Amino acid sequence: MRKSETFLFGVTTGIAVVATVQYLVQLASYAFPQQKTTSSGIIKPVPVRFKQSEEPVADTAANSEVGSSVTLSRPPSPKSSLPSVLETLDNQLVVSSSKLQKIVLHMVSEFKKGLMNDNENIAMLPSFVVNRPNGTEVGDYLALDLGGSNFRVCRVTLEGFGNIRMTHAKYTVSNELKTGSGEKLFDFFAECIGSFCKNQGLDTGKSIPMGFTFSFPVEQTAINKGTLMTWSKGFICDGVVGQDVVDLLQRSLKKKGLNIEIKALVNDTVGTLMAHAYSDPQTYISVILGTGTNAAYVEKVDNIRKWGTGNGEVIINTEWGNYNEATILPLTPWDLKLDRRSSNPKHQIYEKMISGMYLGEIVRLILVELVKAGELFNGMGSQTLSTPYRFDTAYMSRIERDHSLSLADTKQVLEDVMGVPKSSVEDRRIVRHVCELVGTRAARLAAAGIAALVTKINRLDACTVAIDGSLYEHYPHFGNRMRDALRELLGITAENILLEQARDGSGQGAALIAALA
Ligand code: ADP
Ligand code: MG
Question: Whole-prediction pTM value?
């Protein structure tokens, strides 16, 4: 442990120190114009700079959201010019190696705190999964996977020799369901499971074992029992927080007359770790980069001080998305604005800087300000651009993948999808640069979390990290940017850390855990 922390410090070069000092001086001069730090270190917005209502309504640059809120902070320059705008954005969104190193060390200490006490920011929830698979497990199982954007019902066949076969059906959870009653949500799940079983010709006359992947912060009390601590990722259903989610689903299944027994309650990170370990026993860490972000890893029971002492190992669901340290995380005014308007302000700050649900929104907030400052689209935005969460993270992927000279696909996203009246090639270059900055920052922050976990468990010699989620899978260069950051943080040792794409881990893992339970 100590050895690797020292090593992290050791790789900071003189050049990085100079760069950091310059960066901090710039930040101090204009990065946080509308914040002040309280005595407790919490960054608070200064209210006078904001209008009362921040909800966008109109469709012109003059009276829409672009005219309403945080101004793009710029270095004092008499004449507005392109490079200075981009330079300002770079200053706020580029995370230096030394900054990343600080985050790593602080996250390690937060992981330790979470293992020590309940109710810490990073919850470090023991999963009750104490066995890892050895590839010989066999059988037929059902799995349910609620991630955040998608909900899947899976039929998983463990074939032994590390082989898994799976068929699944995917359903979308509507906004209405996400914000309605808990009972309706669980009834909907039961209905989907019923129709899936029927389509698969499964005999629900005899009891079918099922693993339930439920990717929200849950305090587990047994392998198949756990109460929801808080909703995230836009869910706010009534009557679920504080309740046993297995009970709720089991009740809905019973109402539908389905003879299915929920054997295990699983977080997607834990499922992903288990599924990958079925074929690669060096898998000690898993990460989700999808709607939200989270990580799980293998911990010695003896290190979980809040549990007293014990033997063996258990998988910990870190819930790292709720890493919230505002004095350490490189928060910008756009991050603060996104947070204030979210359904869970002051929570899941790390997640809001990294995951698929939020990256597009950060980009949108920046674009809206650039339009307001007259730096983009001749000052003309659009209704769509002014609407929160209408700039999907998947558009960032399209834009970053666009290497045509005229940035033709970027034009299509901006004009055809986002309804911007007209974009010049220069405009599109700026937009692409914003996507690059926000996407790269996310990848680097995620890598810092991985470096912190590898450091925490002292696996710098060999460790596979199984990564699942559409953001990691589809965002161009995301993995490479993470690897770059890991090399900056860990030096040559980073070569020992394998980042591997895990697909369908959350469903397969749930079945595996049900099998082992
Ligand atoms: P879940 O979190 O429900 O398990 P996913 O892993 O599919 O689901 O993640 C969904 C998230 O991934 C959404 O927030 C979406 O914006 C983002 N996403 C989907 N496709 C892409 C893409 N091509 N590029 C970047 N992000 C994407
Ligand atoms: Mg998922």
Answer: 0.82
